[in-house]
UniProtKB/TrEMBL annotation:
It comes from Glaciecola petra. It comes from the Bacteria. This is Mutarotase.
Length: 236
């Protein structure tokens, strides 16, 4: 799988940095004022109790090793389908026409479903953990082609519209990963944390069948208290 190659590459690039405590740390999580907001289309993970239970179990073990890092709220865990407007300071939602955004997104989803001739949900298997330069990621694998097709059609429809967006401005998202932990300071037990991640590099956390996606206003961390649901779109 292409995703597996990406996750393995991240691990090989950053495992040594973790062991040497040389990861990148997020200054906003250490108290730097943060007013960044944006708009995202997301798939939520809380539809599968088994998946959530396995994630919480990992969180408990991680917290025992390093309680000072930022663990994503379990109710906010998600896969980003696409970041439509990347989080930025001085964000003002009132300059956006919500109805036009909804129409473009719905058209893109309809075209994706028609192209794939799929009536099932977006099915994602979460197996293993990897690490980026600043985060611990849950490895997600799309089990059908609907996720890729929706993303492709969203790019086509937004690029053909006059609507403001910043799709792919940071990077072109291809995987179905979920950000679990963000590092805000050096870890106190880097070798033990390295071993914990390596032990879970192939752990089967569970699957989720996403029958809908949510359009949300969000901060950088998708904090529940700062997120606003704008619209929900059925996928099957």
């Amino acid at each position: 799988m292409q995703e597996n190659k990406l996750y393995d590459q991240l691990w090989h690039e950053n495992a040594l940095k973790l062991k040497q405590n040389m990861l990148e740390f997020d200054p906003y999580l250490m108290g730097k004022p943060d007013s960044r907001m944006g708009i995202s289309l997301i798939l939520r993970l809380n539809e599968n109790p088994t998946l959530m239970s396995n994630i919480k179990e990992f969180y408990q073990t991680f917290h025992q090793l390093d309680p000072n890092q930022h663990m994503s709220q379990t109710e906010s865990l998600h896969v980003t389908l696409l970041s439509l407007v990347t989080c930025r300071e001085h964000f003002e939602f009132n300059v956006f026409n919500l109805n036009q955004y909804v129409q473009v997104i719905q058209s893109a989803i309809n075209d994706a479903i028609k192209t794939t001739q799929k009536t099932e949900a977006i099915n994602i298997m979460f197996k293993g953990i990897t690490i980026s330069s600043s985060c611990i990621l849950l490895r997600g694998f799309a089990m059908n082609d609907l996720l890729a097709e929706v993303r492709k059609n969203l790019r086509i429809h937004f690029n053909a519209s006059d609507l403001e967006h910043t799709i792919d401005s940071r990077y072109s998202i291809q995987s179905a990963h979920c950000t679990m932990v963000r590092f805000k300071q050096p870890t106190r037990l880097p070798i033990k944390l390295y071993k914990l991640i390596k032990q879970n590099i192939d752990t089967d956390f569970g699957e989720v069948e996403s029958t809908y996606c949510d359009l949300v206003i969000n901060d950088w961390y998708h904090t529940k208290e700062k997120s606003t649901l704008l619209a929900r779109f059925p996928l099957c």
